[in-house]
Amino acid sequence: MFEKYKALTEKEAVSYAHSLPGLFAPDAELLNKEIGDGNLNLVFHIADQKSGKSVILKQALPYARVVGESWPLTLDRSRIEAEALKQAAKRVSSLVPQVYFYDSQLALTAIEDLSDHIILRKGLIAGTRYPQLAEDLSTYLAHTLFYTSDYYLDPQEKKEKVRQFINPEMCKITEDLVFTDPYYNADTNSFNPLIRESVESIWNNNELKREIAHLKEAFMTRTQALLHGDLHTGSIMVKEDSTKVIDPEFAYYGPIGFDVGAIVANLLLSYVSHEAHSLEPDKREAFQKWLLETSEKIWTGFETKFRTLWEKHVKDEIWLTEGYVDDILLQILRDTAGFAGCKMMRRVIGLAPVADLELIEPAEVRAEAETNALLIGQQLILKRKSLHKVSELTDIARQVLGK
Ligand code: SR1
Ligand code: MG
């Protein structure tokens, strides 16, 4: 339909959807809305008014939408995303949207419409609990990560996959925005002026920055498993009885704790933000308790399921040495804490803040929540090497809020 890449208009997206084989009838009455509110892409929601059938067309722009054309960005992220979704569907098909079609020319993917779900971050801001969340996310993590690692794959096949998911430009965004820029006076930073003192104390903390340097190196060099790469609560869609992980355009081979840590960080950001959100005090306490319990259950569920997969599949003699899987899981727990710490601080100091905190008014109250997020983030990093169980990780959050 198009000979070379072009960003589609709403009208062109409708014609495109109409032309997709087997999706809409020739007399379909298609209505289109561009609904992208993320940092990077165009997202068209196209629905047939007659049959009720619908589809999402997600198209990568050749630049970062949040900044504009001055920040060019690879279109290859669209391939990475389509392939990562297909890879995840092999193991946890009910936990990811179905990919109907991928168009490399237009950097566009046609995917299942999840309009009956909402973005988890929005649900958490409203104080909604999702009873299925910990079970689903721990399954997602254990299965997607174990089955793409050396613990399961043949070494040649694993290295082929590393090659398939080389994603340097998207990784560079993370290297800068999560592991470097927030910790010095970088141009990309943007933070509440009321927390300048806390931010400057981070910029001046050599011990902390030294640990962050180690975490950055692990992110850049440890090809442990195929990660989602950006698993915050805006990349998860939910309804009462269903969880779907979306948007793996940052997928690459990296350390397992980076994905687990992303979820934990975002639950903890929700935890600090609810000191300020408008829930009644007893509901607030109960919701915050649920957030920490959910973080713990995600970890324990992940650990149990990962061990089960290990016992079933690991055949390598040396890896079966007693205690080795315990060492792996302990390292993942400590990495989870460290990466969660970086991910909390980047959302307070750096580019791309989160609505959980941004929506808090007035700025003085927001500053309190942001300072708490920075304190938890720092302690997660500095104390991670002495952690042995997940309750010690969540205790750091409880103590900062005096609970
Ligand atoms: C320029 S992209 C900013 C952020 O949005 C994405 O969701 C990633 O978290 C990235 O760091
Ligand atoms: Mg995203």
UniProtKB/TrEMBL annotation:
ATP binds at N41, K58, E112, D113, L114, D247, P248, E249. Belongs to the methylthioribose kinase family. GO terms for molecular function: ATP binding; S-methyl-5-thioribose kinase activity. The gene is mtnK. Residues 33-264 form the Aminoglycoside phosphotransferase domain. Its EC number is 2.7.1.100. Substrate binds at D230, R346. One of its GO terms (biological process) is L-methionine salvage from methylthioadenosine. This is Methylthioribose kinase. Catalyzes the phosphorylation of methylthioribose into methylthioribose-1-phosphate. Pathway: Amino-acid biosynthesis; L-methionine biosynthesis via salvage pathway; S-methyl-5-thio-alpha-D-ribose 1-phosphate from S-methyl-5'-thioadenosine (hydrolase route): step 2/2. Keywords: Amino-acid biosynthesis, ATP-binding, Kinase, Methionine biosynthesis, Nucleotide-binding, Transferase. HAMAP family: Salvage_MtnK (MF_01683). It is an enzyme of class 2 (transferase). InterPro entries: Aminoglycoside_PTrfase, Kinase-like_dom_sf, Methylthioribose_kinase. It catalyses: 5-(methylsulfanyl)-D-ribose + ATP = 5-(methylsulfanyl)-alpha-D-ribose 1-phosphate + ADP + H(+). Homodimer. It comes from Paenactinomyces guangxiensis.
